[in-house]
Specification:
The complex is a heterodimer of chains A (312) and B (97).
Chain A lengths: L1 H10 L12 E5 L8 E5 L2 H10 L5 E6 L6 H7 L4 H10 L2 H4 L4 E4 L9 H8 L2 E4 L7 H6 L15 H5 L2 H26 L2 H24 L9 H19 L7 H21 L9 H31 L1
Parallel strand pairs in A: 2-3, 2-4, 4-5
Antiparallel strand pairs in A: 1-3
Chain B lengths: L13 E2 L9 H5 L5 E4 L2 E4 L10 H5 L5 E2 L7 H11 L13
Classes of the chains: A alpha/beta (312), B alpha+beta (97).
């Protein structure tokens, strides 16, 4: 129950960077020298998920110091890596605790760990078991065989949904800046009511890009995250136009709205590439080279339209 | 990955097949089934599915695989770029900062 509450808080970014347990060798059940050794990160959520999956078994759990970061992200940074694994095997005197010489690692730890290097330096061989901890019981029961399903990465609606809260929290500051930039000048130049309208339009566009874009990800057109974001932003623009009395606006204002809002949504959905399980560095780089200037131009054009529209 | 495809013709992954000793590690560690195995050699089955995590290259005992590995994260890259140009970071305490 406490673990659940802690997990929920971490999902909302509360104390997320300090949600960790001390690294070292842990016993689940009452393992003996012949029982398997599984390796995980010291992010408390990772540790809890693994521990929960292994309830009722006798296994060793070697927890690496990843500074409270999950296995995959830590492997990408190299903290869930060869060096730390070798260090931890040595510092826990694992070779004197178990009689076998085999470490079982999560597949998503592989970007940080060089199996043959670990083997050379510690004498322990490395087996990559599965992507999800939930598959560990089946893996252990089937004589440590990885099925094709255990290697299959997914990105389900639920898996995307649980990532949204922390994205929202981390975007709060930038949303506040965007909202302020939309509110103040318009309120001063035009009217307070127009300022509030501009603020709500931008706020909605940001939220659309952060929440709706990721949730609808596989069903949105295009492969580029920026294009997907611009598409939901366009939908939001249309909705806002209809709700906020758009047909009564000046043409320049309407054009500005349809330029700026999709650009904002596109930016935030593009940012979701960091959370996704299938985007490559080269792909994101390519997208950014095209999308960032396009978003910038759209915002500038939108500002010019608003200013010009005011004096027409 | 089922239901998801990212941009085509961008992945920097390369496999030098003559060097490959057919240990099959790359097939074990790839989360996107990029490799296939035939005639005791690995080959590239689906290059466009590669997310450049670098697991295969790091775990190849004969260095037959190269890839410009890194995290495909927009804010991480913006922060990298800002740091390279000596400017402050935009995002707070994110995973990619």
């Amino acid at each position: 129950m406490n673990d659940h509450l802690g997990g929920c808080k971490a999902r909302w970014g509360i104390g997320r960077m300090n949600y960790m347990i001390p690294p070292g060798l842990y016993a689940i059940g009452t393992p003996t020298a012949t029982d398997p050794v599984l390796v995980t990160a010291n992010y408390k959520m990772s540790y809890d998920i693994v521990r929960q999956a292994l309830t009722g078994r006798n296994v060793w759990l070697l927890v690496l110091e990843t500074f409270g970061i999950n296995v995959w992200c830590a492997a990408g940074k190299g903290t869930f890596g060869t060096g730390e694994l070798v260090r931890r095997v040595t510092s826990t005197a694992l070779a004197t605790v178990v009689s076998h010489r085999r470490l079982i690692l999560p597949i998503l730890g592989a970007p940080g760990v060089s199996a043959h290097e670990v083997s050379r330096r510690t004498g322990f061989s490395v087996s990559y078991a599965a992507i999800r901890a939930a598959d560990l019981p089946e893996y252990l029961d089937n004589g440590t065989v990885t099925t094709p399903e255990m290697r299959q990465l997914t990105f389900t609606l639920y898996e995307r949904l649980v990532l949204v809260p922390v994205e929202l929290v981390m975007a709060l500051k930038s949303i506040a800046v965007i909202g302020g930039v939309a509110l103040l000048p318009v309120a001063l130049l035009a009217s307070p009511a127009a300022g509030v309208t501009a603020f709500l339009a931008c706020l909605g566009a940001c939220l659309t890009g952060i929440v709706i874009g990721p949730l609808l990800l596989p069903w949105l057109p295009g492969r580029s995250f920026a294009v997907k974001g611009a598409f939901v932003g366009l939908l939001w623009s249309g909705l806002f136009y209809a709700m906020a009395g758009g047909p009564g606006w000046h043409g320049a204002v309407t054009a500005a709205l349809f330029l700026a809002l999709p650009a904002l949504s596109a930016f935030y959905t593009l940012n979701f590439t960091g959370c996704s399980t299938y985007t490559s560095r080269s792909g994101v780089k390519k997208e950014m080279h095209i999308a960032l200037p396009a978003m910038g131009s759209a915002l500038v054009a939108s500002l010019i339209l608003l200013l010009v529209g005011r004096y027409l | 990955m089922k239901g998801f495809r990212y941009l085509e013709n961008v992945a920097t992954l390369k496999l030098d097949q003559p060097t490959c000793i057919g240990c099959g590690r790359c097939l074990e560690v790839c989360p996107h089934q990029v490799f296939s195995f035939a005639d005791r050699k690995a080959s590239l089955r689906d290059l466009d599915a590669c997310m450049e995590c670098g697991a295969c290259a790091l775990n190849c005992p004969v260095k037959a695989i190269t890839v410009d590995a890194g995290v495909g994260c927009a804010s991480g890259m913006i922060n990298e770029w800002l740091q390279d140009h000596n400017m402050a970071k935009v995002g707070g305490s994110g995973c990619c900062s």
